[in-house]
Design the sequence.
């Protein structure tokens, strides 16, 4: 509880009267000062007494329309406060939106002396996906004479929650060389025969086979005992390795690189849940792993992975990777060991200041090793994936901005009997002005395709492109219009 400006004025008046009573030796002024102070005490006690039982008398309701929205979509919030019976107090009820919400409009309803019902409507927008809870409304109570006000949260049961989903990109293209793949990712065959549910093949009966496995219809038809084999059910452990570093922010709102790979990751999640396959998820930002979900088949694991995927946003740090005005790659891209050896050979014997400075750098292989080791995605794969038992299908979702580090991560993921599926977003198809020069953009796309095909050529690796279907379609259509053999060029 705190005094209002009116209470402060009354208090100053009481102090002034008391001082005058002492200076002028007038006891009546002292009595007047005491009377004012008593009035303040009675007012404060009245507010405290009036707030007792307010929890039962006051009803507050918060309604969201809609209760589920996408990022930055407006949501209407209706706040209603009502009293069971009129009160002499002045009440103000203020809504408490989530921290991530931006609100517009009056978030306060007022019940002045005698009022029993009031409503306020305002709008909120949330730019971060996830579940966002509204706090209990704050109730401000003012006494009849306006001397004191108390403000606190009442347990009215008026909590509300808003579920915010990330914007879904339209026209998601997943394919190779501009050709869209039609198969559903995540589906898999058992790979071996045995006792299961799905019929696989017939074979002749051998001594020792159980009698209940004999296919009597086939036996009667073929006049020889036959046994029906069934496809055995197996589980496949899938580990999602999702890159959400700063480079994944490239693209228009709702159609960034991260938005597209998120859709692919959610498809794998849905498939794993339908097949009851173990699924894990490792999200990586510029500073390292931001979320770690070891493979599991529980509802809690699937729900936690979904919440992580839907809440991912590109991190704000990290070295930029892009192109200069001439189209050359700048920023963090790195060189391979072969490139380092060629540069070292070219600088050998160069006694100029340039050669003496750069020669030792290119002669050493450690910079390459150090750079790969320090890459957050590679480091996460080495720390987490190598701990998994059995055959693991690693699903790497990233872009083409770090080809050297990506290649080493893929090699690490396929070690032993592991398999790796790589989903890459071509930067040229996400940059706002990437298709301004269609001829140059096509050259950059061919460079990306060369990198993708190099990954796909590795044993137990499949690599796909993930991009806006309209943009890749426009690029390839323009190429065909120019009379070039698009498919032949891409397939080289």
Sequence:
């Amino acid at each position: 509880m705190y005094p209002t400006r009116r209470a402060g004025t009354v208090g100053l008046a009481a102090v002034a009267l008391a001082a005058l009573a002492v200076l002028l030796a007038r006891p009546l002024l002292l009595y007047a000062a005491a009377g004012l102070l008593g009035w303040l005490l009675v007012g404060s006690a009245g507010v405290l007494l009036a707030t007792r039982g307010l929890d039962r008398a006051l009803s507050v309701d918060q309604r969201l329309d809609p209760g589920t929205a996408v990022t930055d979509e407006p949501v209407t919030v209706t706040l209603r406060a009502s009293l069971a019976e009129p009160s002499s107090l002045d009440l103000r009820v203020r809504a408490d939106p989530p921290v991530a919400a931006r609100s517009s409009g009056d978030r306060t309803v007022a019940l002045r002396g005698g009022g029993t019902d009031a409503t306020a409507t305002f709008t909120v927008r949330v730019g971060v996906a996830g579940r966002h809870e509204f706090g209990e409304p704050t109730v401000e109570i003012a006494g009849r004479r306006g001397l004191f006000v108390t403000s606190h949260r009442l347990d009215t049961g008026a909590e509300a929650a808003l579920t915010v989903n990330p914007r879904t990109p339209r026209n998601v293209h997943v394919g190779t060389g501009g050709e869209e793949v039609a198969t559903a990712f995540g589906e898999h065959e058992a790979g071996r025969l045995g006792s299961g549910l799905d019929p696989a093949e017939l074979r002749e009966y051998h001594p020792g086979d159980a009698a209940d496995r004999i296919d009597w219809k086939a036996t009667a038809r073929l006049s020889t005992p036959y046994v029906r084999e069934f496809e055995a059910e197996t589980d496949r452990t899938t580990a999602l390795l999702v890159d959400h570093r700063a480079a994944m922010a490239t693209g228009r709102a709702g159609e960034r690189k991260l938005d597209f790979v998120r859709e692919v990751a959610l498809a794998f999640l849905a498939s794993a849940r339908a097949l009851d396959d173990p699924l894990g998820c490792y999200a990586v930002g510029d500073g390292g792993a931001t979320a770690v979900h070891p493979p599991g088949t529980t509802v809690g694991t699937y729900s936690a992975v979904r919440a992580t995927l839907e809440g991912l946003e590109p991190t704000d740090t990290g070295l930029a990777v892009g192109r200069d005005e001439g189209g050359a790659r700048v920023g963090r891209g790195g060189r391979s060991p072969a490139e380092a050896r060629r540069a070292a050979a070219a600088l050998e014997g160069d006694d100029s200041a340039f050669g003496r400075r750069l020669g030792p750098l290119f002669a050493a292989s450690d910079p390459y090793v150090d750079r790969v080791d320090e890459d957050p995605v590679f480091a996460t794969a080495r720390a987490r994936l190598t701990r998994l038992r059995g055959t693991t299908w690693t699903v790497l979702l990233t872009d083409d901005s770090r080809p050297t580090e990506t290649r080493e991560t893929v090699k690490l993921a396929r070690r032993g009997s592991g398999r790796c599926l790589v989903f890459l977003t071509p930067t040229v198809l996400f940059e706002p002005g990437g298709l301004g020069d269609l001829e140059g953009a096509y050259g950059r796309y061919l460079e990306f395709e060369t990198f993708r095909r190099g990954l796909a050529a590795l044993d137990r690796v499949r690599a796909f492109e993930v991009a806006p279907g309209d943009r890749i379609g426009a690029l390839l259509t323009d190429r065909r219009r120019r009379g070039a053999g698009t498919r032949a060029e891409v397939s080289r």
Notes: The mean pLDDT is 78. Residues 2-51 form one domain.
